[in-house]
From TrEMBL:
SUPFAM superfamilies xrefs: (Trans)glycosidases, beta-N-acetylhexosaminidase-like domain
Known catalytic reactions: Hydrolysis of terminal non-reducing N-acetyl-D-hexosamine residues in N-acetyl-beta-D-hexosaminides
Family: Belongs to the glycosyl hydrolase 20 family.
Name the record gives this protein: beta-N-acetylhexosaminidase
Annotated ranges, domain Beta-hexosaminidase bacterial type N-terminal: 26-77
Key word Hydrolase present: yes
One biological process term in Gene Ontology: glycosaminoglycan metabolic process
Documented EC number(s): 3.2.1.52
UniProt KW keywords: Glycosidase, Hydrolase
Keyword presence, Metal-binding: no
InterPro entries for the chain: Beta_hexosaminidase_sua/sub, GH, Glyco_hydro_20_cat, Hex-like_dom2, HEX_bac_N
Glycoside hydrolase family 20 catalytic domain span: 80-392
Length: 423
């Protein structure tokens, strides 16, 4: 009944009644940092752990086992160090209370990264004190105090927050606030109210690089984790191709053409983050990222291994396995009806093993999810399947379906909106 299922479970015949004061905890440096071992017998419950996160996960397992614990030994540790969920709070803003609730829900599944997609064409959701218009044009946003609360709440549950400031495409909301960042000084930009890929990108001026480096300075002050995501996906080259000033900059910089501008801007951000001892993460589409950057491979399942072969760290996020915003089955309406992600396709995602593959991540893009209840309905039950993939214990699918019931009941009892179970 445990989700994610422990990776090594040796159950004997008897059972032990659970009580909190029967639990004896001891550190075991022989176990991985997030690993734990539960020894359950009539003498009590010994919880050994490699580190505090391991002890936390051991207790999550005990809680799921219920009031009568099987006698035996459970030795458990995750396959991946990055077990992530991405929430897009740019397309539709999600209130802080919901972010905290989502942290609780993912921590129960032993997931340990919440990646917040904070900016896009349709909104800029993070207060930047140096550039107040960014949030003035976008309406709802998180203040510095909100972020500090979210980061601390997450840390208590062994969840790291990875912030994403997307660039140099998906920036129309930033251009609406500061048009001088764009390629056409005569243009007035609006925070976009459509979905799709805006053709607008950042210009190639040093002032624009400095603007975003200042933004990243505030981001690094707010988010203590080692990773900062800078987007990089779906960046169109049209404006750099047709704007005389961009062409002039391309020549000055010695770039081979407009197609190389995205990588140039990403590399400038990577240099800046490296000085602050932070690692840059970006959405990987082709092998042009800065040395040492961590890639998030979203296009297909093959690109994860390709990025790993380049010697990069990789978080696998192939859309046909991990985009939980896709409907679970064909349905009419404005959802992408040609892209469906079934519970079984999520469960059967078999991440390759290669040096550099550090994790997997599930995505919740919110174009078609205006409310927290919509997000929950898309997340569950598929996030339960994803949690087993991330932990590395996904096995027999019918066994998973049998174990699902108490979890769906528990989620419903917590007031979570659970989507249809379409096996
Ligand atoms: C993406 O789905 N554009 C990362």
């Amino acid at each position: 009944m445990i989700i994610p299922r422990p990776r090594d479970l040796a159950v004997l015949g008897g059972s032990v009644a659970f009580s909190e004061d029967l639990v004896r905890h001891r550190p075991d440096p022989g176990l991985p940092e997030e690993g734990y071992r539960l020894t359950l017998n009539e003498g009590g419950i010994e919880l050994a752990s490699g580190g505090p996160a391991g002890a936390y996960y051991g207790r999550q397992t005990l809680r799921q086992l219920g009031e009568r614990l099987p006698e035996g030994v459970i030795e458990d540790a995750p396959r991946f160090g990055w077990r992530g969920v991405m929430l897009d709070v740019a397309r539709h803003f999600m209130p802080k209370a919901f972010i905290l609730r989502l942290i609780d829900l993912i921590a129960e599944l032993k997931l340990n990264v919440l990646h917040l997609h904070l900016t896009d064409d349709q909104g800029w959701r993070l207060e930047i004190r140096r550039y107040p218009r960014l949030t003035e044009v976008s309406g709802d946003h998180y203040t510095h105090e909100d972020i500090r609360e979210i980061v601390a709440y997450a840390a208590d549950r062994f969840v790291r927050i990875v912030p994403e400031i997307g660039l140099p495409g998906h920036v129309q909301a930033a251009l609406a606030a500061y048009p001088e960042l764009g390629n056409d000084p005569s243009e007035t930009y609006e925070v976009w109210t459509k979905w799709g890929i805006s053709e607008h990108t950042l210009n190639l001026e040093e002032e624009t690089i400095a603007f975003f480096q200042h933004v990243l300075d505030e981001v690094c002050d707010l988010f203590p984790g080692e990773y900062v995501h800078v987007g990089g996906d779906e960046c169109r080259n049209d404006e750099w191709e047709r704007t005389p000033r961009a062409q002039e900059r391309i020549r000055e910089l010695g770039l081979p053409g407009a197609h190389a501008c995205r990588a140039w801007i990403t590399a400038r951000m990577a240099e800046h983050l490296a000085k602050k001892d932070r690692k840059l993460v970006y959405w990987y589409e082709k092998p042009d990222g800065p040395p040492g950057a961590t890639t998030m491979t979203w296009l297909d399942e093959e690109s994860g291994e390709l990025a790993a072969l380049e010697g990069r760290d990789v978080v696998l996020a192939p859309h046909l396995r991990t985009y939980l915003d896709y409907p679970p089955e064909q349905e009419a309406g404005p959802f992408f009806p040609d892209r469906v992600l079934s519970l079984s396709n999520t469960y059967h995602f078999a991440p390759p093993s290669a040096p550099g593959i550090i994790g997997v991540q599930a995505q919740l893009w919110t174009e078609y999810m205006p409310t927290p209840a919509d997000v929950e309905r898309q997340a569950f039950p598929r996030l339960l399947a994803f949690a087993e993939v991330a932990w590395g214990s996904a096995g027999d699918y019918s066994d998973f379906l049998r174990r699902l019931d108490p979890h769906l009941t528990r989620l419903a009892a917590q007031g979570v909106s659970v989507g249809p179970l379409i096996p």
